[in-house]
Amino acid sequence: MGKKKNKNKVSGAVKTAAKTEKKLANKLKKELANLGEEDIAKVVAQIEREEAKRAAASEKNLPGPPSARAYATLTPHPTLNELILFGGEYHNGQKTEVYNELIFYNPVSNSWRQVKAPGAPPPRSAHQAVATPANKGELWVFGGEFTSPSETQFYHYKDLWCFSLAEKKWEKVVAPNGPSARSGHRMSLLGRKLLVFGGYCDDGRECRYHDDLFAFSLDTRTWEKITPNGRGPSPRSACLMLPAGNDSVIIYGGFSRVRDGRTERACTHTDMFRLSCSTSGTWAWRSLGGGARTARAGLAAAVNVHANRAYVFGGVNDVEETEEELKGEMSDDLSVLDLETARWHGVTLRSDQPRPPAAQDTPKEEPCPEPVTVITDEVFTIKLGGGPVVTREEGAGRERAGAGGGPSARMSATLAAHRSVLYVYGGVLEKEEKQFYLGDMYSLDLHKLNEWKTIICQPALPDWLGSDSEEYDSDGSDEESDSDDSDE
């Protein structure tokens, strides 16, 4: 009589993988013990439990603006003249702090109000948020990541949350078949559906970029994975996803790492696609070409729905000098994309009048009550402090004042267009191996297009506490954040 086969027998390869995983887990536990940190999954779960204990919502007017941050979301209020700031992170070279603050900005009174509501999500950055006027106003938040203070652990979310603006309470919406955990993805409201595309997930051993597409019905509260006809964008994070009418979105650019033989290289995409849904419910991709714009990662975008235009600001272009070194060229450009024709246009403020060459050597500056910091290297000079930004490009032989004294060059800022006013808040200034998180804010009247107004001046940059020899790859760790600064 033959021996019975053991149905529970595990192959040698599986055993080896399990042993390796166990060794890595034990190694991580020892490292965390030395740092005094708990396992990040336990930390996130504990924060969520603590937030659920809150009995009632509370509000308080802040004495000043929020702290500096990037990879947050700045969302137009669906019914009021307010902006909603949620989440984000701050890094000083040694530690990272991640926020779950829910803050409302009133541009009329120039005031900030923080709301602490029952059942709030755990802190996160590189998430996505959209607002809808349904049910007296709702804010929807999906995904993102949480980083431990030492940046040795990263937790990517796959949760969906809804904040009732009328009742001032959070709800964690549990629905099966949704997207996997990720950050640096994009989410848009199309009709009564939330569309989620792309993003990435890095567990410390593997970084995976996504090109999948999901739709969440606000009516049935169910997820559906969409497989459109045609060839769409390659896997990426930190792209632009812009609603174009009630039945289509435009996806542009993004960041990923791609295999090139045995090596891996950073890729900043410049291609563009339109995703449309027919009256029969069929989804389809259509390529709109690419290369019409300089490749930059860490772009910020806002849509002016009534004008059917998207405004895009800032970003960074990684220029390879050697096989081992990349130098980032940051931008303070403001461009507009016509969502109907899919054509780019530059934005020139009406107060920007041509000046003779002699006058360009001494650009006129407006006073700012805050301290001014100047950062200079061989590539560019950036002046922070709320006055005009002066950028010198070596080899170009010219100086250029920032448009109307507006925001300086940066990446991963938050951008919002509300009631025909464009707002820019925060972001990251990258210099060599240092990253300075900004806390300034500006507005631009999209009807007049005459000058930027400074809402918050950027104070002197804080001391960088990291090592100057510390290496930051372009996918860091949105976007991009991460967490990759370009990825988020």
Helices, strands, pairings?
Blueprint: H1 12-35, H2 40-52, E1 58-61, E2 73-76, E3 83-86, E4 89-91, E5 96-98, E6 102-106, E7 111-116, E8 128-132, E9 138-142, E10 145-147, E11 154-156, E12 160-164, E13 169-173, E14 186-190, E15 193-197, E16 200-202, E17 207-209, E18 213-217, E19 222-226, E20 240-243, E21 248-260, E22 263-277, E23 283-290, E24 300-304, E25 309-313, E26 316-320, E27 326-330, E28 334-338, E29 343-346, E30 373-376, E31 381-384, E32 390-393, E33 398-401, E34 414-418, E35 421-431, E36 434-445, E37 452-456
Antiparallel strand pairs: 1-7, 2-3, 3-6, 4-5, 6-7, 8-9, 9-12, 10-11, 12-13, 14-15, 15-18, 16-17, 18-19, 20-21, 21-22, 22-23, 24-25, 25-28, 26-27, 28-29, 30-31, 32-33, 34-35, 35-36, 36-37
Low-confidence parts lasting 5 or more residues at pLDDT below 50?
A: 1-28, 358-403, 469-483
Main β-sheet, spatial strand arrangement: 1-7-6-3-2
Distance between the termini: 62 Å
**Main beta sheet: strand number and arrangement?**
5 strands, antiparallel
Helicity range: under 10%
Number of helices: 2
Name the shape in a single word: globular
Tell me what the structure shows.
- There is one protein chain.
- This protein is mainly beta and 488 residues long.
- Helices cover 8% and strands 41% of the residues.
- It has helices at 12-35, 40-52; strands at 58-61, 73-76, 83-86, 89-91, 96-98, 102-106, 111-116, 128-132, 138-142, 145-147, 154-156, 160-164, 169-173, 186-190, 193-197, 200-202, 207-209, 213-217, 222-226, 240-243, 248-260, 263-277, 283-290, 300-304, 309-313, 316-320, 326-330, 334-338, 343-346, 373-376, 381-384, 390-393, 398-401, 414-418, 421-431, 434-445, 452-456.
- The longest helix has 24 residues, at 12-35.
- The protein is globular, with a radius of gyration of 23 Å.
- The termini are far apart.
- 38% of the residues are buried.
